Amino acid sequence: MIPPDILKQVRRIEIFTNRIVNETMAGRYESAFKGQGVEFEEVREYVPGDEVRSIDWNVTARTGRPHIKRFIEERELTVVFLVDLSRSMAFGSGERLKKRVATELCAVLAFSAIKNQDRVGLLLFTDRVELFVPPNKGSTHVLWVIRELLSFEPKGRGTDVRVALDYLARVLHRRAVVFLVSDFFCDDTRVPLTIANKRHDVIAVHIVDPRQDELPPIGWLRLEDNETGEELALNSSHAGIRRDYERWGASHRDQVKDLLQASGVDLVEVRTDRPAIDPLIRFLRMRSLRR
Known about the structure:
This protein is of the alpha/beta class. The protein has helices at residues 4-23, 28-32, 57-63, 98-115, 139-151, 161-171, 190-199, 239-263, 277-290; strands spanning 37-45, 67-74, 78-84, 119-125, 129-136, 177-182, 201-208, 220-224, 231-235, 266-271.
């Protein structure tokens, strides 16, 4: 039995997301991602302006008139969301937790995918694989994916991107667009990311909270690492401590950027205190231009 409050949240996200997909995402998703290849469509007579390289010499020789082969892009994609559900993703200094931002962003992309007749899958992970929903089509399937993102209670608390990528390699044999959504508080995963990106089109979505960048000057604070349980007390009124903290936050973001760049993986940085759709739109525009 699905709790009524979860059903209400799913419905609110569906309404909110569909508006974004129809008004803002229209055409951007399709133009940003390639299909799995090309497939033959027809042979027709050559007309001025056609590519000479497309001439079908066998048909041309048989008919005595130049003909060309036409191909169309195979549009259908498989889109899989690898979403980090570690304890650090349950943090948010404002109105939205990192997990909530991840859910909203995945919902926008999932509804965009099914609008283009693409398949959508989901893999939830912590320091282990928590849940795998095989790729499928249709709005009912996407609503199931969103429901799991909202309500699934993970058993692990740490972050292991490697175990998620290894599992994906075993269960997904077709090339896919893979969105890896995490705050990336994890060990160096350069090698598995590089391998995964050769097989799939991997896009990393880095969820950042403003409290990772700066501390308010409000006196003594007790900070706890959500994943390890370690605690730290510090005086946020001390300017030097705040500067050290800011340097730590900037260093972590630089490390994530360097990791993804070295792995050849595209990066979308999303903040919990700002609309997630804006960096997503910028990324899709960049991908379209690059194509």
